[in-house]
UniProtKB/TrEMBL annotation:
Gene3D superfamilies membership: Leucine-rich Repeat Variant
Region (Disordered): 1-44, 348-368
Protein's recorded name: HEAT repeat-containing protein 6
Bias (Basic residues) ranges: 1-15
SUPFAM superfamilies attached to this UniProt entry: ARM repeat (SSF48371)
Boundaries of every DUF4042 domain copy: 373-558
Amino acid sequence: MANASRQRHYRHHRGSGQPRRTDGEDNSARAPGPRQKESVPPVLGDCLLSQGRQELREDLVKLLDRAKGGRADLAKDAAVSQEFSKSAQEKLALACIGMSSSTQEDVELMSKVVFALFNNELVKSFDPQPKATPNSNLGIPNTTSTQAETIQRSQVDILRALSAVLFENGAMVNDAFPDLIDILLGACSSPRGQEQSELRRMALNCLANLVHKTGSLYSTYHNRIYDLLLSNLTTTSYYEVGTMVSLSSTVRRKDRASERKEDKALSTRSMPPLVDVICRFMFFTSDTTGHLAATPSSSAFSIGVIKRSSYATPTSSIATSTSTGPLSGLPHVSDIYGDPSLSIRRSIQSSDSEYSDSESGVHQAQRMQHDGKVRLNALLCLQAIARAVPKQLQPHWPKFLTTSASSPTALATYKTPSLLSLMGSDPIPTVRTAACIVLGNILESSKQYLAMAEEKSQLSGMKSHAGILTLSEKVGLMTRELHVGVAAAMNNVDSTIEPTVVIQMIKCATSVVANCTYEKMRRGLALTIFSSIRRFLDSDEPGLQAATLLFMTALLSNTIAQTDLRETILLPSQNETTAPNLLSQLMDLIYGVDIPIPVRVEAWNTLSAIARHHFVVIQSSWPRFDTALAIEQDADDSRVRTAGLLFLGEFAKSGSGASSPSTSDWWKDTLERHILNLFSEDSPSFKALGCDCISHISADAFNGLPNRLEVLIMSLILGTAMDENATARAAACRAIGVFILFPSLREDCTLIVDMANTVLDLCGDPNLNVRVRASWAVGNLSDSLVLLKSNGQDAVLEEALTLSLWTKIMRTALAVCQDNEKLKSNGIRAVGGLLRVTFEGILERERHSLVKEAVYALIKHMEQGSLKGRWNACYAMQNALLNPDFPIGSTAGTSYALDSDMVSWTKDVYCALLQAIQQSKNFKVRINACAALTVPKTRAKFGDQALFRNIVQVLMNAVQNLDNEQGQHEFGEFQYRGQLETKLLRCLDHLLQVSGGLSKLGLELDPTLRQRILASRPVVAPPIDSIQQLTNKVETLVV
């Protein structure tokens, strides 16, 4: 019973994410030990009231026997289970009053009953404010203390029972919480030693269950709890088995505390000592002398390239820290790499020799399990930090990831402990699995960090450059060691013995290749892992095959690694019988009748990744894929058919740029064989896939289709846009947004109006995804109208853009600008495009209503909102100013002169553009604002003299400030600095040419600035006649 309970309570170690409730051990499982009276907190004796009744004891014994039987018999009938739970609570309430707290037997009996009931979930919670019995809350305030003379065993029993009661019930003891915290913190701070370890461990369990799932209810106590846990870890002496169990509980509680989203600040304020102490126990007795060990001379640390950050060692003497801060009193950590005599393995105690051979084996096995629990809980704690604050953890990677300057062919080059050594050689499979999962979690949010990885072509000279490696080179070393270490672990694992570990290793390798860019790394690094994993593709275990295919998909989706992959694993090999290429293996999997469904689905996903980057490779074998897709149409499982259609969509998208005469023929055949029949399916997901596939057709290929197919496609797309399913409607909106830009369809006024009305109506759809796609199509609609005007098709534009349609588009676009953030950019783009093509009559008619509302909507989004919205607003204003009839500036000689001397929004428009130039942190927003200022070609468009002078003055200051703000901008903006400087200078040049000189404005131009303006002017190519004359002159001179 005890073993089964213990296994259940450690279930969260296997990745279930559930916190451990209690220990679950029987009293008989503990070593007897002497019963000595200890000085304990004074409240622990008040938990059981002293009025013993013999009949109550008998009832509790019967209740205990019933509870030990578990809940299997009670689970069959909910009514019986509920009645039993109610009866048990009543008996416990009576026991809290009638049992004697001074009698050890009563205390032990009461503790066992409470533990058995709550641990087996026969009683899940209690009512803190009961209606009938005053003490029906199980007497929680009275069951947290014993008299000073109560022995330690009773204290442990009480805390074990209390831990079971508090599990997920911490929020219900609000009134008693301060007393409970003080008691438990005092017990956790009890003197170290074999006798007190069990008491501390149970107190830690109570503490964790007390704050579990309480949110920020007790946030004022979080710092005290956090410091206590960290103090327990940094001052623990773990040469005794009992203390090892205590530190295991501490690490586990630390895991739970660190993963709390409300307490991210706890982890960040003391990250260095926290990571140090986690690493101290993460490699606790870790054996790194197995397959991953090699000579230490090849390690980058041992040759002096990188100085490893130190963390605690399992020595009894730990130097005192001199640091300051909230954790200044905690012990410091020492370096285990400076002295080769120091080992992270626990020394064998002299008492080990007292065991016989058989007892020694049992003792060693038990000790190995205890050590494994410590490592496992430390790994879980590191995982919690990686999930909560991944960026803050990145500077500490060298503490648990070794780096090396070795070639990728070596199995491994490190002897220091690391996550890779745990993954490859830890004796406990659970720890190896956890190491894989934790490393994968660490890499999930590190793509930007790993992007800086750089690897020099020559690593032999690293020793002479010790201490001057850049951060990118250090990250490059860690990146290579990740690949080498994972490949070495994969080469030394037996999939027949440890399939679960192998699957987790492959998933970890998937995270490695998915987050590494390889842009500045030497070629062939990605193939290091591929070579060690490919063999599992032929495994008989479906889980291994699916995991391997998932890795292949991630690898083939990495853009930078495609050159190596195409030359190595995709092109046909010379001997297909002995070494078939990956494409052939994937074909065998999708054609296999007895292949499991998940494997076939992952095989199609891998082919989709190939089609995305290697169109020619798929095209050369298209007949076989065409046949396979036809077979999948009759598949019983929709997952396989869906995966095949996704592959078809990726292949069509990859080949959308092809313009060969055979493209239209391929589309005609594909539409008739695989796509058009999807619209007759009952499943809306297949209709959505059909729309997605059709949306990848190019304009040239569409024009080459028979007229009947063109009409059928548009009819199906417009019909699907009215489907009841939101997914189908969203896919149809995307397809309409693509077709509305086709030149041949733009000339059909009727079709333009139909598509416009469809997407405009769907902008009010209750589904957000549909509105996003519809708003994108509306933005493309405005772009299509702009193209009509730019190409001189004014007649088509006048026929299509009626006043009613213009009004509907503008109202819809303005509504989109006020919708979800995902839609706003599309609405802003639509407003700008529509203002560019608006006729003069509509501008005059709507200048006080929709036009004014549109202008101030653009001004609003130029001044505030997301960077994407501001960029689009500046671009939209540029579009509006490109309309020669757009009213702005002076009203002299126009119909607007009756209102005022200057159009009302002139000053607001230019001030918003100037504000974007002055204050925006994004250089691309500034560039678009400058582009908008260069559009007006006459002085009158810029308003009065004061406004124009202000515009010129701001631009001159912007050029000067750009030189002074070089160190104040984000790194990613510097690539646009040159473009922004040129745009500012050309904009200033344009304004000076429009004004006729600075003398009229009362401004002076610095000579240096004047030279920069002249140098920024684009170089105008000489006419062709002049070039020919110059060529003839040169030829004459040569002769």
